[in-house]
Design a protein that fits this description.
The protein has 135 residues and is an alpha+beta fold. The protein contains four helices and six strands; from the N terminus they run βββααβββαα.
Length: 135
């Protein structure tokens, strides 16, 4: 397990920078972290249950909380806060950032969705409000 020796949140560029003892450094945009959240809400319990995240271009990180000694919980401006980003997951994201980003963009393109929050093409992909149980 590689644990970063420094973590910086860059508000202006909307990115998290992680630095490691071996000199490795990853700059992970907030949008990238949000759309690849390790939460079951995003990843599902299997690949066929994954939920494509749309309209997240402007999302920011508004909170960071430690989870034991093995992870961070990121709180995003859109209210998402259920993913535990384990240290090894940050390394995986950093080492595969270009590939994962291109795969994400290809998925958006394939279904006609967008990164832009106000794009009407995203409507079919937004979560539907839960109905109250009429009791």
């Amino acid at each position: 397990m590689r644990i970063p020796v420094d973590i910086v949140l860059h508000k202006q560029s909307k990115a998290m920078e992680l630095a490691y003892e071996d000199g490795a450094r990853y700059v992970l945009p907030y949008e990238f972290l949000r759309v690849l959240s390790p939460s079951a809400e995003v990843q599902g319990h299997s690949p066929d249950e994954a939920v494509l995240q749309v309209g997240k271009r402007d999302v920011t990180v508004v909170g960071v909380e430690p989870v034991g000694t093995y992870a961070l919980r990121l709180v995003f401006s859109d209210g998402h806060d259920s993913g535990f980003y384990e240290w090894d997951y940050f390394v995986e994201l950093g080492e595969n950032q270009d590939r994962y980003w291109q795969e994400y963009l290809a998925k958006l393109d394939a279904v006609g969705a967008s990164r832009d929050p106000e794009d009407p093409r995203n409507e079919p992909f937004k979560p539907k409000p839960q109905k109250a149980c009429g009791r």
